[in-house]
C-alpha cells in the first residue's frame, strides 16, 4: 500500500519530530510529488524543510551502503540530495512498526526551485542570460561528477532542479536529484532497471559514458530555451522525443538553427557531433562543453526591455501583480499564489520582473507550507466564493481591456536578427565632428562572408587526407584560411580547387604540433576569426571500452587478479615479452592511438577507477580490448593409454566343449583364465597358451584373465566367447 500522509501528521525520525506540509497550491492536500516509482513528501521541522522519498523500486540493504558512499560527494554544490539517511526497521523501529511502507524510505534535504521538466511542460521562457547561466552551471556540475569517476546514470529534465531561478544568489544554480542511479569510483551501482527516457542514447551506455548524451541534450535545451521557436517546437516534458534522437527531424533543425543564430556555430556543431554519435562513447566529453559554451557577453547582447509605460493602458501584467500583492497583504496567500502564477505565465523572457515573481511564488509556497491547513467555517463559504469570483472577473476584464488597447496603441517592433557567424571587413571612415552629411564617396570595397556549417567537425590526425568543408555564403572571397588554438602554432590550410560562393574545401597538408588528446581550433578566414566556427583535431582514431580482461582468460598468461578483480598490464612495446607498466580493467575507456602492428593497439587510458592512471599509454593486444579473437584454450594433453590385452577370435577349430586362449607380447607365467559364473579354469603355459574344457557343446560364455596375484588383467575381463573358439590376444 503506498504511503498516504495527512497534513500535519507527525513522523519522529532519530528523535526529531517532522510534520507533513500542506500543498501550497491545492488546499487540503499534503505536499506530495509523484514520480514513476516513488513519491516525495515535503516535511518541516524547526530547522527547515526536508524531503522524504518513499520508493517501491528498490527496498534492500544495498541502499544503506550506497547512501554512505554518496556522502563523499554531498559537499559538491548541486548534490545536496546526496546527504541522506535510509529509514529501516533496524534504525527506526517505532516508525516502521506503525508505518511499514516507510521501510527503506530516504530522508534528505529539500531542494528548492522548479524542475527543468516543469519549465518545458508549461513553456515558461528564459532570457538569454538565464539560459546561458543555467547551461554553464549544469555543465560545471556534470564535469565535476565526471572528473570524480562518477555518473548520475539517469539524467533527464525531471531530475534537474533550478534553484537559481528563484534565488540568483544560490550556491548551486542547478541541482541534481534522484541520485539512486549514481555510481562509479567508490560508489556501488544499485540493481536498478535500465532507465528509459528521451535523454537516453539509442545504444546502451557503458561505464563513464552514461551521462554524456543526456547531459548534452539538457545543456542544449537550456541554451535554446530563450528562443520562441524552440519552446514552440518542444515535446511535452523534453524537447526531443525518442523518435527524434539521431534523426534529422524538424525539431533537430529548429534547435540547431536557434543555437547558431543566438550562440554561434560552437553549440550547433556540438549538436551535430551528438547526432553523428554511433554510441555514447562517441559523444563529446562533458568537459568539452566548458570550452564551447559562449561568452556571457553574447547573452548580454539581448534586446533591451522597452521603457516603462503606463501600466494601466498597455501593460497587462502590472494589474495582475498589483492585485496579487494586495491579496498577499490581506493574508489571502492561496489566491495571491494563483494570480502570481498567472502573471508569470504571461511575462516575456526578457522581462526583469520574471525572476522577482518566481522568488515571490517560492516565498508564498514556503509560507503556506509553514501554516497548517485548517477547515474554513461553513458560514465563510457564503461570502468568500462570490468575492473570489468577483476578483477573478475584474482581473480578466482588466487584462482583456489592456490587451485590446495594446493592440491598437502599440506598433509592432521590427525584429532584429543578429548573426554572430557573419564577419565583415569595412575600412572605418573618419568621423566628422559636424552633423552635416559627409559628401558622397566612391563605393568602398566590402569583403563579407558567412559560415553556416563545417563538416566533418573533428579530424583524426593519423588519417589522410585531413580535409573538411565549409558551407555558407560569400566564401569565394576567401583567400587565406588558418586554424588557431591557444598554446599551439597556427595550422595553415590549403584552399582546394572547386570552391564556390557557398562552399569552401580546405586541407591540412602538414601538421607539426604536439597534440595530446583533442583540442578545438578556431577557423580564421582572410585573417579574421569566425566566431563559433571550430574544428576539433584529435590524435586518437576512436574510443573503446575494455571488455576482454576476464578471469576466465587466465590461461592466456595475460590476466592477473587482485582485490579489485581481473586486470592486465600495458606493455612498453607491441610484444608479449615487452616490459609492462600500468594496469587496465574491464570498463576502463581507452583512446586508440594506433592500430599497428597487426593484433595490437597503442592506447591511452581515458577513464579509470584509479584517476592516477588517466593519460598512461602503451600497447595492448587487441583481443584484451575488444574481447574478439581471444586465443583458444590449449588443447588438453591426452596421456597415452596404458597397454592392455586386445582379443580377437582366430577360428573355431577347437573342441565344441573347450576354448583355447593364446596371449603374446607379455610373460604369462602364473596367469590363469576362468570362465565367468562357472567353476572352470586353466593355467597358461610358458608359451602363453591356456585351454579350458567342460562346457556344453557351443556354449556361449565370458572369461577373465588373471595375473599371478589373482588380479584381473587390463583388457582381459568379461571377454565373450563360446565352445570351439580359438581366442588370440596381444599385449599393447
From TrEMBL:
It comes from the Bacteria. This is Serine/threonine protein phosphatase.
Amino acid at each position: 500500500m503506498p504511503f498516504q500522509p495527512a497534513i500535519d501528521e507527525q513522523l519522529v525520525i532519530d528523535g526529531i519530530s517532522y510534520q507533513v506540509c500542506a500543498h501550497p497550491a491545492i488546499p487540503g492536500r499534503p505536499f506530495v510529488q509523484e514520480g514513476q516509482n516513488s513519491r516525495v513528501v515535503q516535511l518541516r521541522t524547526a530547522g527547515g524543510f526536508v524531503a522524504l522519498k518513499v520508493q517501491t523500486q528498490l527496498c534492500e540493504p544495498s541502499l544503506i551502503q550506497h547512501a554512505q558512499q554518496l556522502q563523499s560527494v554531498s559537499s559538491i554544490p548541486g548534490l545536496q540530495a546526496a546527504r541522506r539517511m535510509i529509514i529501516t526497521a533496524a534504525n527506526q523501529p517505532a516508525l516502521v512498526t506503525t508505518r511499514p511502507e516507510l521501510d527503506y524510505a530516504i530522508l534528505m534535504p529539500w531542494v528548492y526551485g522548479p524542475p527543468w521538466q516543469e519549465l518545458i511542460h508549461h513553456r515558461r521562457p528564459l532570457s538569454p542570460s538565464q539560459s546561458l547561466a543555467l547551461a554553464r552551471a549544469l555543465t560545471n556540475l556534470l564535469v565535476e561528477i565526471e572528473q570524480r569517476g562518477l555518473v548520475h546514470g539517469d539524467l533527464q529534465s525531471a531530475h534537474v532542479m533550478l534553484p537559481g531561478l528563484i534565488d540568483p544568489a544560490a550556491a548551486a544554480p542547478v541541482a541534481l536529484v534522484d541520485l539512486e542511479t549514481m555510481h562509479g569510483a567508490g560508489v556501488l551501482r544499485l540493481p536498478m532497471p535500465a532507465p528509459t527516457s528521451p535523454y537516453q542514447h539509442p545504444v546502451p551506455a557503458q561505464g563513464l559514458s552514461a551521462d554524456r548524451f543526456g547531459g548534452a541534450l539538457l545543456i542544449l535545451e537550456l541554451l535554446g530555451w530563450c528562443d520562441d521557436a524552440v519552446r514552440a517546437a518542444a515535446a511535452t516534458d523534453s524537447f526531443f522525443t525518442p523518435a527524434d534522437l539521431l534523426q534529422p527531424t524538424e525539431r533537430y533543425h529548429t534547435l540547431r538553427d536557434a543555437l547558431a543564430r543566438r550562440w554561434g556555430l560552437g553549440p550547433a556543431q556540438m549538436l551535430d557531433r551528438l547526432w553523428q554519435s554511433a554510441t555514447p562513447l562517441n559523444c563529446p566529453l562533458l568537459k568539452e562543453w566548458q570550452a564551447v559554451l559562449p561568452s556571457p557577453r553574447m547573452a548580454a547582447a539581448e534586446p533591451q526591455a522597452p521603457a516603462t509605460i503606463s501600466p494601466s493602458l498597455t501593460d497587462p501584467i502590472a494589474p495582475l501583480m498589483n492585485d496579487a500583492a494586495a491579496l498577499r497583504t490581506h493574508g489571502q496567500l492561496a489566491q495571491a499564489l494563483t494570480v502570481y502564477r498567472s502573471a508569470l505565465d504571461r511575462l516575456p523572457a526578457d522581462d526583469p520582473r520574471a525572476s522577482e515573481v518566481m522568488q515571490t511564488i517560492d516565498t508564498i509556497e514556503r509560507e503556506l507550507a509553514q501554516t497548517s491547513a485548517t477547515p474554513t467555517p461553513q458560514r465563510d463559504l457564503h461570502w468568500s466564493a462570490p468575492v473570489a469570483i468577483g476578483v477573478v472577473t475584474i482581473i480578466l476584464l482588466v487584462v482583456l481591456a489592456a490587451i485590446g488597447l495594446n493592440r491598437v496603441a502599440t506598433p509592432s517592433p521590427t525584429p532584429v536578427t543578429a548573426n554572430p557567424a557573419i564577419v565583415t571587413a569595412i575600412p572605418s571612415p573618419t568621423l566628422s565632428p559636424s552633423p552635416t552629411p559627409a559628401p558622397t564617396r566612391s563605393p568602398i570595397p566590402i569583403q563579407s562572408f558567412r559560415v553556416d556549417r563545417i563538416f566533418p567537425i573533428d579530424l583524426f590526425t593519423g588519417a589522410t587526407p585531413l580535409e573538411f568543408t565549409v558551407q555558407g555564403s560569400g566564401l569565394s572571397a576567401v583567400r587565406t584560411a588558418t586554424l588557431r588554438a591557444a598554446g599551439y602554432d597556427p595550422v595553415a590550410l590549403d584552399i582546394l580547387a572547386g570552391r564556390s560562393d557557398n562552399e569552401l574545401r580546405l586541407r591540412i597538408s602538414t601538421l607539426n604540433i604536439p597534440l595530446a588528446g583533442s583540442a578545438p581550433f578556431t577557423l580564421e578566414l582572410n585573417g579574421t576569426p569566425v566566431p563559433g566556427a571550430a574544428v576539433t583535431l584529435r590524435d586518437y582514431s576512436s574510443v573503446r571500452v575494455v571488455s576482454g580482461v576476464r578471469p576466465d582468460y587466465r590461461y592466456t598468461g595475460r590476466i592477473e587478479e587482485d582485490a579489485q578483480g581481473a586486470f592486465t598490464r600495458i606493455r612498453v612495446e607491441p610484444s608479449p615479452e615487452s616490459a609492462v607498466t600500468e594496469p587496465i580493467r574491464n570498463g576502463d575507456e581507452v583512446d586508440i592511438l594506433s592500430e599497428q602492428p597487426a593484433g595490437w593497439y597503442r592506447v591511452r587510458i581515458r577513464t579509470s577507477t584509479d584517476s592516477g592512471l588517466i593519460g598512461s599509454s602503451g600497447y595492448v593486444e587487441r583481443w584484451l580490448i575488444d574481447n574478439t579473437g581471444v586465443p583458444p584454450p590449449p588443447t588438453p594433453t591426452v596421456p597415452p593409454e596404458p597397454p592392455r590385452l586386445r582379443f580377437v577370435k582366430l577360428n573355431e577349430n577347437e573342441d565344441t566343449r573347450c576354448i583355447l586362449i593364446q596371449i603374446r607380447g607379455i610373460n604369462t607365467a602364473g596367469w590363469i583364465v576362468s570362465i565367468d559364473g562357472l567353476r572352470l579354469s586353466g593355467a597358461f603355459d610358458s608359451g602363453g597358451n591356456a585351454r579350458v574344457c567342460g562346457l556344453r557343446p557351443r556354449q556361449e560364455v565370458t572369461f577373465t584373465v588373471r595375473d599371478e596375484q589373482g588380479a584381473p588383467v587390463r583388457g582381459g575381463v568379461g571377454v565373450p566367447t563360446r565352445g570351439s573358439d580359438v581366442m588370440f590376444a596381444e599385449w599393447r
